[in-house]
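Minutes, project check-in
Item: structure for the 215-residue chain
Input as provided by the requester:
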Amino acid sequence: MKAAALLVPVLLLSTAQPVRAEAASGAAVKVTPGTVVVGERGTGTWTTLSATGIPAWVELIDVDLYGPGGEHQPLDLSVRDLPGVWEGEVAFSRFDRAGKWRARLRFYGSGRRGEGPSVSFSVKRRTTLSTGGKSARGGALKGVLRRIGSGAGYRPYAGQKVRLYRWAGGTWKYVATDVTDAGGRYAFAKRPGRFQVRFAGTATNAPASRTAAVS
């Protein structure tokens, strides 16, 4: 399998030839989910692009998807179950480049064409946080932060901040921060109560959290 697989479009690119430029104000486009989190396996995470407020003359909508590394992937939208809502789906996997992507719409119909709106969204790789793992630094609450590696499986994620929160007064209150070592390990001093450890994520790696009780 190639190290940088392309997105998989659901519909084929239209061959319509526009003749005259046309204004297409009022249209809107969104991506669901706004942040696409891909997992370890290469089967892909399905993402929906939907457009509303489309002018009545539009017969076809093409979408250009641009990745952070210059990737370009075409996709078509079509009207499905909801009148006036045009949709298309695309699958991202860990083989696609993580980071900020952009989708731009182009409208075609009745010998006319129009430039539609664009929307940015993020593709991130899943991370995991464990609690109760081994740690040479001691501590009652400890574990390992991992991220998807270049190969199969998850790898320790070093040099990242993991924050500790304690449940008190009906809310999570910040307690302390640790930085993961070369093995992705973090550790916090013993404190009784209900705690949550959080990794805030990066531009390419998704956030993660775990909740634990310490007696």
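Outcome recorded: The CA atoms of residues 4 and 97 lie 7 Å apart.
No further action items on this chain.
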